[in-house]
Design brief:
Length: about 400
Amino acid sequence: MANNKQRYIWRDISLFDGLKTLPKPMAVITQGERVVTMTPMDGFDESQADGCHDMGRGGVMTPGLVDCHTHLVFGGARADEFEARLEGASYEEIARRGGGILSTVYATREASEQTLFNAALPRLKALVEDGVTTVEIKSGYGLDVANELKMLRVARRLGEALPVRVLTTLLGAHALPPEYENDSDGYIDLVCNEMIPAAAAEGLADAVDVFCEKIAFSVAQCERVFKAAQAHGLPIKAHAEQLSNLGGAAMAARHGALSADHIEYLDDAGIAAMREAGSVAVILPGAFHTLRETQQPPIAGLREAGVPMAVATDANPGSSPLFMPTLMLNLACTLFRMTPQEALAGMTANGAAALGLKGQGQLHEGAVADLCVWGIETPAELAYAVQPGRLRQRVYQGELTHGR
Ligand code: NIG
Ligand code: FE
């Protein structure tokens, strides 16, 4: 915990507050865990800086980044599949012949909790060193009760090892494990009747996710998972409309999902359902890029409907082996024509909303002091250039964890 008396001051900051860039250079003071002063420089009374540690002048301040969709815990690697795709195989074909997600399942089951932890730690460090202060980590490569819980335990431990808030998501319905070949309803029974209750009983899951797709689970099966999750008081979200339009996002929205993620094939009815429910659209340009997809998510339609859009890495060994959140800002703009402001809101305020942390991922007086200061001049530069090393300072819960 930050020392209650510790006060930091930044002057002449260009500030993106999580939703917008403020028009004037700002002064920002934090005390202990909180932002206590955020005021334009031209009205700043210097006596407020008394007793503050001087953190410098200039640069861009943003909320700490929120990466609301990752699969950071996994065994093995899938470079062979990467090569196969370059030679023409599709993600779906690879999955149908037992590769893809399942190949990571074998490697993850094989690995001990400690091995998984050791492998995931540098991945999480990469995110933290690129400005992330809140991250979601999914299970989904265990696909049985013991291995799903093992993954969630690793995710919890990661949050204790580094100065970052980790939210865990049970993704038992990610793929059909080989033991249940030809019995996908039987596997959904296991997810609903054993996995969700066990994860809830141990307090290991903050939410429940599903993969609603032809190569994964049907809309009806995903709906059963949602009902079981909600019976245990767990919020829900979905991987939906990534490779085809099954209507999973609309179904998830009808159940009050926090978010629907990927959504390249989302149609107008899906957009309307998400708007109605207040679900966040999580845009994952890393997977689109890696899989060389061509169907664009309906950004203009989402924008017009006022559906909040988040942006995340989807960091995983198959569809998005990309562990650099600021690269996603760039890809969201370049590939999907999101504006730099939208992309930034997507990785701050809207990323938080996608995790059920509405009102977080924002900077204002009274906010928790999770923030980054970047060595650039305007917030848009964060999305414009892809350049490691720009993070000048990172503050997590009022404590300086990077820079000086
Ligand atoms: O978000 N779409 C499904 N699941 C992951 C990919 C996981 C994998 O390929 O290992 C995703 O893209
Ligand atoms: Fe994913």
